[in-house]
């Protein structure tokens, strides 16, 4: 059998995609690097060339999925829009997490609370500086009075997790509550 040579980034992505598939199908705990290599029909050492452990591989794949979700949210935003309009039109998790990927299936299945929570924290970490920039821009336009946009952004982003992760509340209601609170908060600092 001839050896197939691929560009490093292509091979790395293939390992990430295959890993999420195998994690989803077998379960994270039951999956080993050798299972991923076997699924790819490559030597186990190839996977270790790119990732030092299963944990690093999973963390990288989860980070990539979080970045994809944040990217989708940001593509739909116009940073020059007034803050109140922006909050009213900002995309929600309901609109961006439905991509059909194995990462989505793994993180959003009913038994995946641990992975979903990890994903949520990664998304928050990526959104916080974006929201800080939006708040800073709104402050410069005179829309809001705010001393510390960085801290406010952390509260805006991470503060929603209590509502957004509460599965006892219907998804649309969680979005309505979060958006309503943000609009009320913006009104208070205007």
From TrEMBL:
One Pfam family named in its UniProt record: TetR_N
DNA-binding stretch(es), residue numbering of this chain: 32-51
InterPro entries: Homeodomain-like_sf, HTH-type_Tx_Regulator, HTH_TetR
Keyword DNA-binding included in the entry's annotation: yes
PANTHER family reported in the protein's UniProt record: ACREF/ENVCD OPERON REPRESSOR-RELATED, ACREF_ENVCD OPERON REPRESSOR-RELATED
Gene Ontology molecular function: any one: DNA binding
Keyword annotations: DNA-binding
Superkingdom to which the source organism belongs: Bacteria
Originating organism: Candidatus Limivivens merdigallinarum
Protein name from the UniProt record: TetR/AcrR family transcriptional regulator
Gene3D superfamilies from the UniProt entry: Tetracycline Repressor, domain 2
């Amino acid at each position: 059998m001839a050896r197939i040579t691929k560009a490093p980034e292509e091979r790395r992505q293939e390992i990430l995609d295959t890993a999420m598939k195998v994690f989803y199908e077998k379960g994270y705990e039951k999956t080993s690097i050798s299972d991923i290599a076997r699924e790819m029909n490559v030597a186990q050492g190839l996977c270790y060339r790119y990732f030092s452990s299963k944990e690093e591989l999973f963390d990288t794949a989860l980070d990539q999925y979080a970045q994809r979700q944040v990217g989708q949210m940001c593509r739909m935003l116009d940073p020059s829009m007034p803050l109140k309009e922006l909050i009213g039109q900002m995309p929600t998790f309901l609109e961006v997490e439905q991509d059909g990927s194995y990462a989505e299936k793994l993180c959003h299945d009913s038994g995946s609370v641990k992975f979903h929570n990890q994903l949520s924290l990664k998304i928050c970490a990526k959104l916080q500086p974006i929201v800080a920039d939006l708040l800073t821009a709104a402050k410069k336009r005179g829309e809001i009075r705010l001393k510390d946009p960085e801290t406010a952004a952390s509260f805006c982003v991470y503060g929603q997790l209590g509502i957004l992760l509460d599965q006892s509340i219907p998804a649309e209601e969680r979005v309505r509550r979060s958006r309503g609170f943000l609009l009320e908060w913006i009104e208070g600092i205007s």
